[in-house]
Design goal:
Number of strands of chain A: 4
Number of domains of chain A: 1
Number of helices of chain C: 14
Shape of chain C: globular
Helix content of chain C: 55-70%
Radius of gyration of chain A: 19 Å
Oligomer: heterotrimer
Shape of chain A: globular
Helix content of chain A: over 70%
Structural class of chain C: mainly alpha
Chains: A mainly alpha, B alpha/beta, C mainly alpha
Distance between the termini of chain A: 54 Å
Largest sheet of chain A: 2 strands, antiparallel
Radius of gyration of chain C: 22 Å
Distance between the termini of chain C: 48 Å
Strand order of the largest sheet of chain A: 1-4
Largest interface: A-C, 43 and 42 residues
C-alpha cells in the first residue's frame, strides 16, 4: 500500500508540473487557436533563467529568499520572452493559414532550443540547491521530499492565482471574451492585442515556474529538456479539453499519474519502464479518436 | 595537452604533431560521417577516439576500411576492437569492469542481493549489466530487480520505488553521470539505504553538481583515481590543472592523454606513419607506463590492466581498492 | 506509339546516367575520375532527402493535410526492410547467387526488401491515416507527431531490431546480444545501397508523384486542400483521397527508409521528430505545392551545413539556429516558399504543362463531372 501511495505522490508531482505548462498551452489555444509549439521551450528558458539568476546574484546556497528571488525572476524573464515571441513571430502570421502559424511555432521552438545549445552547450548543468533537501516519512516506506512538497504548494498557489485572475478581474474577463470570439471582443472595445500579449506573458510565467520547480527536484537542466515535457503537457491540455483551464490541470495530473504507474507497475504486465514517454502519446491518440474535445471540453460545430 | 607536450619536447622523430578535432555531438551516425571527413578531407594518419562505445562502434568501420589506426581512449564495450585489426583501445573492457564490481560487491561489501537500474539507450550500460549479472550470480548472489531508464530521463522515482519494494544489499547503476547524479538524489529522497555501484561512466567533475551529498557512500570501478598519491599521477594532475584553468582531469582526460602518448610512442617506434608499420607498432605496445596504469595491448588489441574501486565521499573519488585481472 | 518509344528511350538514358554517376561515386571512379567519399555521402543523403521531401509534399503540400510524423514511416521502412534482410533473405540470396551470380542476387534481394519496407510503411500509413485524417489541421499534426513518437519508442524497446543501440545485425532476442553464428540470421547488414539505387528511386518518386499531381486525382487532392467542405459538397470522396495520398506518401517514406537502413545502420536516434521538422523545412523552403521546390529544399538543407562549415568564425555551430530563423522569416515574409505553387522551367521541355488547377480562377476549372457525383451515395455530403 505504501508503494502505491508513493507512486501516487510521484505521479501527482510530475503531473503538477505538466499542469503548469498545460495551462499556458490551453490559454493560448483558447484565444488564438494556435498550438504554441515553443511553449515547452519556455519551460526550459525559465529553468535556465533561474539558473543564471541564482548564480549571478550569488543566491546559490539554500535559502527561502533565494528560492523566491529565483522563482519570481525566472517567471519575469520567461514572461518577457513569451511576449517577445508573440510580438515578433506570431503576430505577423496571425492572419495567415493555420499551417503557416503552426510552422512558425515549430520554427520558434527550434530556434530557442538550438540557440541555447549553441550558447550554452548541450550538456546538462547542475541547478543550484535552493532548498535544503529532506525527506519526510509518511507511513511505511512512503516518503515525500521537501522539493516535492514545494512543487505541490507552489503549483496549487499559482493555479488558484490564475483562477482568481481569470474570473475575478477585468483582464480575466477580457481574456475570456477574446477566447469566445476575437472579433466580437474587438468590437466591444477590448484591446485584443494587449490581451493576447498578456495571455502569453501569463502562460510563460507559469511554465517558467514549472521549470524552476523541476530543476529543484531533479537538478539537471539542458537546452532540450523542454521538448518531451512540453509535448506531454500539450497532451495533458488536449486530454482535459483544450481551451479549458481546469481541464488543463486535470489532464496534467492524470498524465503524470498514468506515466508513473506504468513505470512502476508496468513491468509486471510486460511494459518496460522505457515505454514511459509512449504513455502520453498513447493517451493522446485515444483522446483524439474517442473524444477529441477532451474530458471537460465542449464540441464546437464547424459551420460551412 | 599531450600533443602540445610532445611538440614542446621536439616532436616525434623530429616532426611536429598536428591535432585536428571534430565533434560528432554524440550521435553514432555523425560519428561515422566525421571520421570519413577526417580521413578523406583532412588526410589524418591516425585517430584518437571515440569516448562512448556506441560512437566508436559506428566510427571504427570507416577507419578500418581506410587502414587508419584508431585508438579509443575509453570505449569499454568489447565489440569496438572486434571490428578490425586497426582498432585499438588503452582501457579495459566491460566484461572485466562488470566483473570488478561484482567481485567488490560480494567480497568486500558482502552483498547477496542486487538490484539493477541501467540505461537502455547505451551499449556501454547494457554490456556492463550483462557482465555484472554473470559474475554476481556466479559468485553466489541473486538479482532481485532489473529496471531501465532512457538517457535524458530526469525522473527515476517510479523505477526506484519499485526497486525499493524488493530488498537488496546493493544497486548496480552502470550509467552516465548526467543521470546518475539525479538517481543518487532521488534514491536518498525515497529513503533507500543500499549503496549504489557504478562504472567509469560516473566519472566527471560535474557529477558533484548534480548529485551533491547524496552521492556519499557509493562506489565505482574506474581506470584511475585523481587523488592517487603516486608522483607520476599527481604531476600529471598538476600540469593538467595548470593548462586547463584549474579543472581536474577525470578518467577520460587521463585516458585521452595516454591514448595519444601511446600513439606517439608507436609512431616513434615505427619510424613514421605508414599505416601497416604503425598498426604493428601499436599492437606491440607493452608495459607502457601510462597515467592510467601500465598498458600492454593483448592479441585482441585491448589493454590488460587492473581497475580501481573508488568510494564517493565529500565530492571526491577516494581510492578503496584495486582489483586485478585474473 | 512514338511517345511510348520516347518514354522508353528517356528511361534508358536516365538509367545509364545513374549507372555512370554511381561508378563515378564509387571507389574506383569512372575513367579515373572519382569523387571523394565524403562528398558521395552528401549526395546519397541528398537523394534520400529528395524522396522524403517530395513524398511529404504530396500529403502536406498538395492535399493540405498537415502531417509532421513523416519520419515515423521512414523508420518503419528502414527497420522492416533491414529486418527482412537480416532474418529472412539470406537463404534466398544464396540460392539465387548460385543461379545468376552474386550481384544480381543482391539486387533482387534488395529490391525485395525495399518493397517490404514500402509495404510496411504503407500499412502503417493506413493505420495512422484512417483515424487521424478525420481530425482538423492542428489536431492532425499532433496526432501524426504522436504516432511517429510511439513508433520510435516501440522500436527502442524491441530487442530483435537492436533496441536503443541500433540495428547492426542478428540479435539473439533471449539475452539481447549479437547472434553467435549465421544460423539465426546475418551478423551484419549488407550495405546494398549505393548512389545508383538512391538515384533510381529518387527519379521514380519524382515521376510518380508528378503524375499523380497532374492527373484528375491530383486535382481532387488540391480541391481538398483549397476547401475541404466545398470539395465534399462537390462530391469528392475526401476521406478516400486523403487516406490514399497519405498511404502513398508513407510508402515512399518507407522506400527512403529502406535505402537509408542499408547504408547507415538504423538507429532510433536518427528518427526523432526533429528529423520530421527538417523535412518540413525542406518543403516549406521550396514551396509546399511544388515538386521542384521540394527537390530544391532537400538539396539546400543537405548541402547548406557543409557550405556553412567552410565559413569562418564558427558559423557552422549556429547552423541549426540559422535554419530555425530561416523558417520563421520565410513564414513571415514568403510563406509560399521559393516556388510557391508552381514548378520550375519544365516548359522548356516543350511539353504542354498544366498548372495545378488550384491556382486557376474558380470558373476556369473543370471540377468533377456532375453525372458522377449524382450517382454517389448521400453519405459523402456531411454537415
Amino acid at each position: 500500500m505504501d508503494t502505491f501511495v508513493q507512486q501516487l505522490i510521484n505521479g501527482l508531482n510530475i503531473g503538477a508540473i505538466y499542469a503548469l505548462i498545460a495551462l499556458g498551452y490551453t490559454m493560448v489555444y483558447g484565444i488564438l487557436r494556435l498550438i504554441n509549439f515553443a511553449h515547452g521551450d519556455i519551460y526550459m528558458v525559465g529553468a535556465f533563467a533561474g539558473y543564471f539568476i541564482a548564480i549571478k546574484t550569488g543566491m546559490a546556497g539554500p535559502s527561502w529568499m533565494g528560492l523566491i528571488v529565483v522563482l519570481l525572476g525566472s517567471m519575469a524573464v520567461a514572461a518577457l520572452v513569451g511576449m517577445a515571441i508573440e510580438r515578433f513571430a506570431y503576430r505577423p502570421v496571425r492572419k495567415y493559414a493555420r499551417m503557416t502559424t503552426l510552422i512558425t511555432a515549430i520554427g520558434v521552438s527550434l530556434l530557442l532550443e538550438n540557440l541555447f545549445v549553441a550558447l550554452f552547450g548541450g550538456q546538462g548543468r547542475g541547478f543550484p540547491q535552493l532548498l535544503q533537501d529532506d525527506a519526510y516519512r509518511l507511513f511505511g516506506n512512503a516518503a515525500i521530499s521537501k522539493s516535492q512538497i514545494l512543487i505541490f504548494v507552489v503549483s496549487i498557489a499559482l493555479m488558484v492565482l490564475l483562477q482568481w485572475i481569470i474570473f475575478k478581474t477585468k483582464v480575466g474577463t477580457a481574456m475570456r471574451a477574446v477566447s469566445f470570439n476575437l472579433n466580437s471582443a474587438k468590437l466591444m472595445g477590448i484591446n485584443t492585442n494587449a490581451i493576447i500579449t498578456f495571455t502569453f506573458a501569463l502562460g510563460s510565467a507559469l511554465a517558467a515556474a514549472g521549470g524552476v520547480l523541476t530543476a529543484q527536484y531533479s537538478p539537471t537542466i539542458d537546452p532540450l529538456m523542454g521538448i518531451t515535457t512540453g509535448l506531454k503537457a500539450f497532451v495533458a491540455a488536449v486530454l482535459g479539453g483544450i481551451g479549458n483551464i481546469p481541464g488543463a490541470v486535470l489532464g496534467g495530473l492524470l498524465i503524470g499519474v498514468a506515466e508513473t504507474m506504468v513505470v512502476g507497475y508496468g513491468g509486471s504486465i510486460g511494459i518496460a519502464s522505457t515505454y514511459r514517454d509512449a504513455v502520453a502519446f498513447a493517451i493522446l491518440i485515444l483522446v483524439l479518436l474517442l473524444r477529441p474535445s477532451g474530458i471537460l471540453g465542449t464540441t464546437v460545430q464547424e459551420k460551412v | 595537452m599531450a600533443a602540445d607536450e610532445i611538440n614542446a619536447a621536439g616532436g616525434i622523430n623530429g616532426r611536429q604533431v598536428q591535432l585536428i578535432h571534430e565533434d560528432d555531438q554524440g550521435e553514432p551516425g555523425k560519428a561515422a560521417t566525421v571520421v570519413a571527413k577526417l580521413i578523406n578531407q583532412d588526410q589524418v594518419r591516425a585517430l584518437i577516439g571515440e569516448v562512448a562505445s556506441s560512437n566508436s562502434i559506428a566510427a571504427a568501420p570507416n577507419a578500418q576500411e581506410a587502414k587508419v589506426p584508431m585508438i579509443s581512449p575509453s570505449s569499454t564495450n568489447p565489440k569496438v576492437t572486434q571490428i578490425g585489426d586497426y582498432i585499438f583501445r588503452v582501457c579495459f573492457i566491460d566484461p572485466f569492469q562488470g566483473e570488478v564490481m561484482a567481485k567488490f560487491a560480494v567480497n568486500t561489501l558482502k552483498a547477496k542481493k542486487a538490484a539493477i537500474l541501467f540505461d537502455s539507450n547505451s551499449d556501454y550500460s547494457k554490456g556492463l549489466v550483462q557482465f555484472f549479472k554473470a559474475s554476481f550470480t556466479k559468485l553466489g548472489g541473486t538479482i532481485v530487480a532489473e529496471k531501465a531508464y532512457a538517457q535524458r530521463d530526469r525522473d527515476f522515482t517510479g523505477q526506484l520505488t519499485a526497486i525499493r519494494d524488493t530488498t537488496q544489499d546493493v544497486i548496480y547503476v552502470p550509467g552516465y553521470y548526467q543521470e546518475v547524479g539525479v538517481i543518487a538524489k532521488q534514491t536518498k529522497q525515497l529513503g533507500i539505504k543500499a549503496p549504489l555501484l557504478g562504472g567509469d561512466g560516473w566519472d566527471s567533475p560535474q557529477l558533484w553538481d548534480l548529485g551533491g551529498d547524496a552521492l556519499n557512500g557509493n562506489y565505482i570501478s574506474n581506470h584511475y583515481s585523481v587523488d592517487d598519491p603516486t608522483p607520476v599521477i599527481q604531476d600529471f594532475v598538476k600540469r593538467y590543472k595548470a593548462k586547463y584553468n584549474g579543472t581536474a582531469p577525470d578518467a577520460i582526460a587521463a585516458l585521452g592523454f595516454d591514448a595519444t602518448m601511446v600513439m606517439a610512442d608507436a609512431i616513434k617506434r615505427a619510424g613514421g606513419t605508414e599505416c601497416v608499420a604503425l598498426r604493428n607498432a601499436i599492437a606491440q605496445t607493452a608495459n607502457y607506463k601510462g597515467i592510467t596504469g601500465v598498458i600492454t595491448l593483448n592479441s585482441e588489441r585491448n589493454a590488460v590492466k587492473p581497475a580501481v574501486v573508488l568510494e564517493l565521499k565529500d565530492k571526491k573519488f577516494v581510492y578503496k581498492e584495486t582489483i586485478n585481472p585474473d | 506509339m512514338l511517345s511510348f518509344v520516347k518514354r522508353v528511350l528517356v528511361t534508358l538514358v536516365i538509367l545509364a546516367v545513374l549507372y555512370a554517376l554511381n561508378l563515378v561515386m564509387s571507389k574506383q571512379g569512372l575513367f579515373g575520375f572519382g569523387v571523394p567519399l565524403y562528398q558521395v555521402d552528401l549526395w546519397k543523403m541528398a537523394g534520400i532527402n529528395i524522396i522524403l521531401a517530395v513524398s511529404l509534399n504530396l500529403i502536406n503540400g498538395f492535399t493540405g493535410q498537415f502531417s509532421i510524423g513523416h519520419i515515423g514511416f521512414m523508420a518503419i521502412g528502414a527497420y522492416s526492410s533491414t529486418f527482412a534482410t537480416v532474418y529472412y533473405t539470406q537463404g534466398l540470396e544464396r540460392w539465387l547467387a548460385g543461379v545468376v551470380g552474386g550481384d544480381i542476387a543482391a539486387a533482387v534481394a534488395f529490391t525485395l526488401v525495399i518493397l517490404v519496407g514500402a509495404l510496411a510503411a504503407a500499412i502503417a500509413g493506413l493505420v495512422v491515416g484512417i483515424p487521424s485524417l478525420r481530425l482538423r489541421g492542428d489536431y492532425l499534426a499532433i496526432a501524426t507527431l504522436g504516432f511517429a513518437e510511439i513508433i520510435r519508442i516501440i522500436i527502442v524497446n524491441t530487442n530483435k531490431v537492436g533496441g536503443a543501440t541500433g540495428f547492426r545485425g542478428c540479435v539473439d532476442a533471449a539475452n539481447g546480444t549479437t547472434c553467435i553464428d549465421e544460423s539465426m540470421g546475418r551478423l551484419t547488414i549488407p550495405a546494398y545501397t549505393n548512389f545508383f539505387w538512391i538515384g533510381l528511386f529518387a527519379v521514380i518518386t519524382i515521376v510518380i508523384i508528378y503524375n499523380i499531381v497532374n492527373s484528375d486525382a491530383g486535382r481532387a487532392l488540391i480541391s481538398i486542400r483549397e476547401d475541404e467542405l466545398a470539395a465534399q459538397a462537390m462530391g469528392v470522396n475526401t476521406t478516400r483521397y486523403k487516406v490514399t495520398s497519405f498511404v502513398i506518401s508513407s510508402a515512399f517514406a518507407g522506400v527512403a527508409g529502406a535505402l537509408y537502413g542499408h547504408w547507415r545502420l538504423p538507429h532510433p536516434n536518427d528518427f526523432t521528430f526533429v528529423r520530421s521538422f527538417e523535412i518540413i523545412i525542406m518543403i516549406v523552403l521550396g514551396g509546399m505545392g511544388s515538386i521542384t521546390g521540394s527537390i530544391l529544399g532537400a538539396l539546400v538543407i543537405t548541402f547548406l551545413p557543409e557550405v556553412l562549415r567552410q565559413l569562418p568564425g564558427g558559423v557552422y555551430d549556429y547552423r541549426l539556429v540559422i535554419y530555425a530563423l530561416l523558417l520563421i522569416i520565410i513564414m513571415i515574409t514568403r510563406p509560399q516558399g521559393v516556388f510557391g505553387g508552381r514548378e520550375f522551367g519544365l516548359s522548356w521541355l516543350k511539353r504542354a504543362r498544366r498548372l495545378p488547377e488550384g491556382t486557376a480562377a474558380v470558373g476556369a476549372s473543370k471540377g468533377v463531372p456532375v453525372a458522377e457525383s449524382a450517382a454517389r451515395p448521400e453519405k459523402d455530403v456531411e454537415n
